[in-house]
Structure formats: structure tokens, C-alpha cells
Automatic annotation (TrEMBL):
The gene is murA. Cell wall formation. Adds enolpyruvyl to UDP-N-acetylglucosamine. Pathway: Cell wall biogenesis; peptidoglycan biosynthesis. Phosphoenolpyruvate binds at residues 23-24. This is UDP-N-acetylglucosamine 1-carboxyvinyltransferase. It catalyses: phosphoenolpyruvate + UDP-N-acetyl-alpha-D-glucosamine = UDP-N-acetyl-3-O-(1-carboxyvinyl)-alpha-D-glucosamine + phosphate. It comes from Candidatus Pullichristensenella excrementigallinarum. InterPro entries: Enolpyruvate_Tfrase_dom (IPR001986), Enolpyruvate_Tfrase_sf (IPR036968), MurA_subfamily (IPR050068), RNA3'P_cycl/enolpyr_Trfase_a/b (IPR013792), UDP_GlcNAc_COvinyl_MurA (IPR005750). Pfam families: EPSP_synthase.
Amino acid sequence: MSEKLRIHGGMRLEGEVAVSGGKNAALAVIPAALLADSPSIIENLPDINDVHVLMDIIRWLGADVEFRDNVMRIDPRPVDKFNPPYDLACKMRASYYLAPVLLGIFQRAQVPLPGGCFIGARPIDQTLKAMRTLGASVDTLGGVLEASVEELIGGDIFLDMPSVGATVNSMLTAVSASGTTCIHNAAKEPHIVDLANFLSSMGAWVKGAGTDVIRIRGGRHLHGANYTIIPDQIETGTLMIAAAATGGDVTITGAIPTHMEALSAKLLEMGVHVQTEDDWIRVRSNGVFRAVNVKTQGYPGYPTDLQQPLSALLTIANGTSIVTETIFENRFRFLDELRKMGANVRVIESSAIISGVDKLVGARVSATDLRAGAAMIIAALMADGVSEIGGVEYILRGYERIDEKLMQLGAKVERIRQEELTRA
Ligand code: EPZ
């Protein structure tokens, strides 16, 4: 059933909110737990659709899984299948992380590929190259990643770009390969480090995560582990931007300030007050912003997943901002929706030129992808009047209880289900 969010703009966000566990950390750590020969307990998992889809898939493979109060217990011992079904795997892009795991367990894997999405083609050539480098035969005929191998042997993987997904898949393959694997030009995102820490807690030998060379001595016996994943960097950033956008005063607890440095620096440049301590970040703003230029990069650069939410805020900054998207080739589609609210933006090649306007006006808009949905929420929170955002299912994939969290901070947000919409 399709749902909308109805947001009454103009309310200042104030108070304290706790950030949930990291979506992209969860999607890498859960598949890794299948490599153990005993159960794992993973804490601080966000209760979001993507995690539920991944749980359904590993249950289908045979794992015993319980998920309650953000804690998941996974017993991988009953897993006896290597070919998750299309109708489950296609719901969530990261399901292809299961391919190296199932290859390590069964020496073969057949995992349907979800293909591209609104933000780009999202090829997986680097993942295929990594698995082949370690000895696997791999192809993707018919949209299914089919891999097989006699024995995985460690080697040197050279990634053409610091791909997050390819780094995850290289790590998940290398822990099952005998000998040493070096992953060169690795992604350095916080959830890469989180995956390395989880693998190490299972008994793996992983060094260098967070740098551009990760070394793994594979083929070791892996046991279950108790682990708590990191807070969600992108949810933290989205809440920081929402606080600034409404001229609010919000403290985000359970965060890791060092993960947020690129955004914090940008907000400070815009005239926003950002205060950090060991596990909280306070954002205060008077609602007046300087225009800034932003260029998305891999971590520790400015994250592409926070490009859309910040672009929404820049629509009311004083002056003209230039936002350059270097990671995905089609991540400006949401600007069409912002134009409906009065934004003055145009796109030239990989840059959006955003000329600040006095205010946005509430409108009926839709989310075309997860972070576009976050951008629509930011815009609606600061617009004059009421907005309705369609495509809530995208937003709920990656933000746990985002409507409740915003209401807790003083926003006026309602979730409208389809039958109510037809009466409206
Ligand atoms: C991960 O996607 C995240 N998803 C994305 O978050 C995030 O935007 C992205 O990393 C960058 O940080 C998960 O972690 C589940 P990439 P991923 O491989 O792994 C090109 C969200 O909103 N590329 O680092 O797909 C690719 O086309 C999502 O939470 C190749 O050409 O990102 C893209 O242009 C959206 N060949 C660039 O590299 C490859 O084999 C970066 O992609 C792999 C990637």
C-alpha cells in the first residue's frame, strides 16, 4: 500500500533525538554472520525495511534468525541453500553481498542482481573482478550473479575506484580464501571499518580497514560473535541538516562526531553552529545560511548520500551554491521536485547550480529514491504551508521511525495511508 507523509512546514526542531544503527553497516555485517560455525548476536540494528528483507533472505537460506528490539540473533548452522530467490533478492540492492558468503560456504552461489536505480546504473564489475582475482568463475547472465570455485586463493585486488560495495564483497570473499589478500584502492567508509571489526571479532585476520589498503589472511576458522554496529552516519547527517533547516536547536545522541566531519565543516561554513562531544552532536541555527560549494567524494570526503539533503537546504541560502556530484551519474532527479516548491536550480553536467530563494512553498512532491525522500522532508520542514511526500516506502527503507523522531523534535508530520488519500 502506498503512503504519503504530510508535513506542515515552519516548525522549529528542538530537543534531543537518538540516532539508529547504520543501515549500510547492517547490510554488510548480517551476511558476514553466515560465515561463522556458531550463532552471532548483533546489537543496534536499525528496524528498517532493508534489514527485514535481508533477514527474510537469510531465513529462506535456512538460517535461524530472531530480531527484536534492534537485536538480531543469527544461527547460520542450518543454512543449506546457495540461491536466494529473485522475489526477495530484487527488493534490496545489497543482497548481492550474499554472493561471496555463499561462495565461501558452498563453493558456489547464484544471487539475482537488482540492477540500477534512480541514482545510476550501479554496475558491479569491480565485485566480479575481485571474485575472479581470488579464483572464482563468475558471470551475470540473465541478471543472476553465478559464481563457482574449487578453492579460493588469496591475491592482490586492485579496485578501479574506491567502491564501497566492491570493497565489502572483496573482504567477504577474502576471509574464505587461503593465504593473504590485499585490497588496493579500498573504500574507507565507516561501515567498511565496522565490517572489518565484526569479522575480526569472529576470528578473522583483517588489517588496514579505513585506509586504502586492506590486508586479510583468510581461510581461518570463524565463530559467532556478539557485536554492536556503529550509528548511522547518513541518518545523523540528515537530522543535523533538518535541525539547521528549521532554525532549530537539536542534540543528536549516540552519534560518532568524527564520522560527520565533512558535513559539520560545511554547516559551519554556512553559518550553522555545530558542537560535538564524544557521542553527541548539537546543531543550532538562526535560519540564515551562507551559500557554499560542495563536491561529493568517498569517505572522508563529503558523502554522496548527504548531497540531496544538503541541496534541499541550499535552496534558501543567501547566494548561489554549486553542488558537484562525482559518485553517481544521476543523483539530481530530485531537483525537479524541489522546483515544484519554488527552488531555483539548474543542472550543468555533474553540477547543480542552486540560487537561494527567500522561501519554499509546500507542495505535493514524491521521493524517487531513499535520499531524495530525505531531501523532500528537509524541504517540507522549512517550507511555508503543507507538503505531501509520496514514495514513503523509499524513505522507510533507510530511516527508522523518521516520522516519530521528527515529531518528537516538534515537527508536524502525519503518515497518510492510501484509503485516506482517496477520501482527501
Ligand atoms: C554504497 O553503494 C551505499 N549502499 C550507497 O548508499 C552509497 O551511496 C555508496 O556506497 C557510496 O557511498 C550500501 O552501502 C548498501 P559504490 P555502492 O560501489 O556500493 C561505481 C544509500 O542511500 N561503480 O561505492 O553501490 C558506481 O556506479 C545508498 O544508503 C562501478 O563503476 O556504491 C558509482 O558511480 C545509495 N563499478 C561509484 O562507483 C563497480 O563495480 C560508487 O559506487 C562498483 C561501483
